[in-house]
Amino acid sequence: MAKTLYLIVSGAMAREPVSDLVRGLQGADWRVSVLSTPMGTRFHDPAELAELTGEPVRVEFRMPGTGAPLPPPDAVLACPLTFTSVNKIANGIADGFAIGLVCEMFGFGVPTLLVPHCKPDLASHPAFARSLATLRAVPRVTVLHDPAAAHPPSWGEVTAALEEASAAGRGDAPADGGYGYAG
Question: Which domain of life is it from (predicted)?
Answer without folding.
Answer: Bacteria
